[in-house]
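Private note to self, pasted from the team thread so I don't lose it. Backbone tokens:
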């Protein structure tokens, strides 16, 4: 432990912890897997980060950058021990809101919702809204390329990152990207750092693009007899020239789970519900969009279309979607939660295959998620923990189906530890070797978040 205790000289004894309470507090994330670090360190500034990384690099000590620890794939877990570099204490400031250029500079520990609220006070808008927005940090959002319900219209985190300031494992500082809208000088290093899950560098500052906040928004819900009708309605609506802010869905199992837990009067016999939101600067624009969505829904089997009359009705409509994840716990002791993504036109086939896999293995697999961008949260519910290996077999088969449908293993949760064993399903040996070469170029001693993403 002597090598770790030397870090006190860098950050001060008040920012270095190796007591049991801190080791336990920083040993887990939303996966609930547990790996204890050797110590937890809170860098006070960028200079501390440089010194910590240089020391750890010279002494072959693993460093695991961590924000809120809210990830679903173990990306911030110290699976090999080492130093948890906790960024939330000091790196939590909004450094600049530039209204003239419509950008914001933040430190990585800024909470997503705090950023949204701050820029909205200035009449600006930061759209990425992961479900964890109330506590997840911007650094974590960038490291996982987080999405959210508004992604159907506004895109995901990568669409708003303009520049990143970061520290390499050897302690050197780099700035990737610029404040300018256009920049084609050199390789897109910022793009490589996005979704790199803390394996390449430690982010210390992020410059984000902002847009003007729309004046009006309205929500609606469509009820469908079958999941197939709902999935067809999604891609046919999205390709009709209408781009809703969000297009979310719950299948029958998810609907029944929410109703069982909260008794909200949901249509428990429906095959699926679609929940949508539109926005704009004119009421006429809102009315037109909703009328076109209703038309497309009804052309594809929608049996009832409800438009929220006010904010309360809108909140009621969204309640089911926001509470689906916790509700489906009624189906099993262990939830194997994945976030596969396919092209929207492949959604009907994907959901049919998931139903087939559920029947094959004898598991309930409730599904919900962001169908506006093809991102489906699949949940293999394991009732008897002795069947956990069979559950992972089902997950592997679901991943293969998604990839065969020209999709991906993850739309927003990342790879981390949980999905690392499945990377060979999605990537060839040549592609994995390229990933390893990139990792080697940034981190030749493999000290930053080792073992994640199958690297």
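Design output:
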């Amino acid at each position: 432990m002597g090598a770790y205790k030397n870090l006190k000289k860098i950050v001060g004894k008040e920012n270095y912890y190796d007591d049991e309470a801190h080791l336990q507090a920083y040993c887990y994330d939303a996966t609930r897997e547990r790996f204890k670090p050797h110590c937890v360190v809170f860098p006070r500034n960028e200079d501390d980060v440089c010194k910590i990384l240089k020391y750890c690099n010279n002494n072959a000590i693993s460093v695991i950058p961590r924000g809120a620890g809210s990830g679903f794939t173990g990306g911030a877990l110290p699976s090999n021990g080492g130093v948890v570099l906790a960024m939330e204490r000091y790196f939590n400031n909004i450094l600049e809101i530039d209204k003239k250029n419509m950008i914001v500079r933040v430190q990585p520990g800024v909470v997503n919702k705090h950023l949204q609220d701050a820029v909205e006070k200035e009449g600006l808008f930061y759209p990425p809204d992961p479900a964890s927005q109330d506590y997840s940090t911007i650094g974590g959002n960038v490291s996982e390329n987080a999405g959210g319900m508004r992604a159907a219209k506004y895109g995901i985190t990568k669409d708003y990152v303009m520049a990143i300031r970061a520290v390499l494992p050897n302690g050197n500082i780099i700035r990737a990207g610029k404040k300018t809208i256009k920049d084609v000088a050199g390789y897109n290093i910022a793009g490589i750092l996005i979704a790199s899950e803390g394996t390449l560098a430690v982010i210390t500052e992020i410059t984000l693009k902002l847009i003007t906040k729309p004046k009006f928004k309205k929500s609606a819900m469509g009820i469908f007899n079958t999941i197939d009708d709902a999935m067809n309605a999604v891609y046919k609506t999205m390709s009709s020239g209408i781009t809703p802010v969000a297009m979310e869905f719950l299948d029958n199992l998810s609907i029944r789970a929410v109703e069982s837990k909260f008794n909200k009067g949901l249509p428990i016999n429906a095959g699926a519900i679609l929940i949508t939101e539109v926005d704009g600067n004119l009421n006429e624009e809102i009315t037109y969009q909703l009328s076109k969505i209703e038309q497309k829904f009804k052309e594809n089997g929608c049996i009832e279309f409800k438009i929220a009359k006010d904010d309360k009705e809108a909140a009621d409509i969204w309640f089911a979607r926001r509470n689906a994840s916790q509700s489906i716990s009624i189906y099993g002791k262990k939830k194997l939660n994945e976030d596969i993504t396919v092209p929207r036109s492949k959604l009907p086939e994907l959901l049919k295959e998931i139903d087939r896999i559920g029947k094959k293995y004898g598991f309930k697999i409730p599904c919900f998620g962001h169908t506006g961008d093809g991102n489906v949260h699949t949940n293999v519910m394991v009732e008897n923990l002795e069947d956990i290996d069979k559950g992972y077999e089902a997950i592997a088969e679901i991943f293969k189906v998604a990839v065969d449908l020209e999709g991906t293993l993850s739309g927003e949760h990342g790879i981390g530890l949980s999905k690392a064993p499945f990377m060979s399903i999605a990537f060839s040996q040549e592609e994995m070797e390229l990933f390893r070469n990139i990792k080697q170029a940034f981190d030749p001693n493999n000290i930053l978040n080792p073992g994640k993403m199958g690297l």
